[in-house]
Amino acid sequence: MYRGKSGQANLTVGSDGSGNIVAEASCDSLQRLVLWYEEELARIRSESRNGTLNDVQTEEKRPPNPVRVFIIGVLAGLFAGILLTIKLKK
Q1: Which chain regions cross the lipid bilayer (predicted)?
Q2: At a CB cut-off of 8 Å and minimum separation 6, what does 72 contact?
Q3: Sheet holding 21-27, edge to edge
């Protein structure tokens, strides 16, 4: 059996009972990342089973009432017209 390490990388080479060569390689930072993802996955699955996972609620936005928009537009136009007329007469 041979074991080697270079920085964060590990290598183990050996043979199984049948005489086949078996090599295993790993990297410490990747192992930590995989472990973190496994723990997160287990936590999320546990929360979803227990029903404690916060459901995302979407709020439906309705479009504005077209009649109201039209009336506001007409009133704004009249107001702007009156202001311009008064300003131009001075």
Answers
A1: 67-86
A2: none
A3: 2-6, 9-15, 21-27
Confidence bin at 77 (pLDDT 50/70/90)? very high
- For 59-76, the pLDDT digits (tens) are 788 888 889 999 999 999
CB 44 within 8 A of CB 53: yes
Residues in the chain: 90
DSSP string covering 8-73: TEEEEEEE-TTS-EEEEEEEHHHHHHHHHHHHHHHHHHHHHHHT-SPPP---PPPPPPHHHHHHHH
Element (H, E) at 86: helix 66-89
For 18-35, what is each residue's pLDDT tens digit? 888 888 888 877 778 778
> CB under 8 Å to 47, separation ≥6 — which residues?
53
